[in-house]
Amino acid sequence: MLTAGHAADSPQFIPVLEKIRVRLPVGRPRSRPGAVAADKAYSSRTNRAYLRKRGIKAVIPEKKDQTANRRRRGRLGGRSISHDAELYKERNTVERLINRMKDWRGIATRFDKTPESYLAGLELRASMIWIDDLLRTTD
Prior knowledge:
By secondary structure, the protein is mainly alpha-helical. The protein contains seven helices and two strands; from the N terminus they run αβαβααααα. A two-stranded parallel ribbon has the order 1-2. Helix 2 links the parallel strand 1 (35-37) and strand 2 (57-59). The longest helix has 24 residues, at 115-138. It starts with 12 loop residues before the first helix and ends with a helix.
């Protein structure tokens, strides 16, 4: 989903997950991934409730202020949030891809005036990365 450059990412969490289709080697694409790894910005109660309702494992660390508020409330604060630290480490794969996309100056600075041209630049850059990776693996 494409939003304005200054818009926050967290409100787009649920709409993006509703559009995701996970492809496995066999069968039709699934609309429910097994787990979602995200950074602390996505650690809202709404996002966690959505994942819990859909049966998706949340691999999202808790913000320090959320932890402090929960502890301050004592028993009424609920259980602590746990996340799979090993699975969370794999999130860096996506972060590295985003950084490779931003190697293109137009993507990093969002010079494009229309959403269509920006999206076209993203698709072109993604294609270039994909082709580059294919050429590296065949050598």
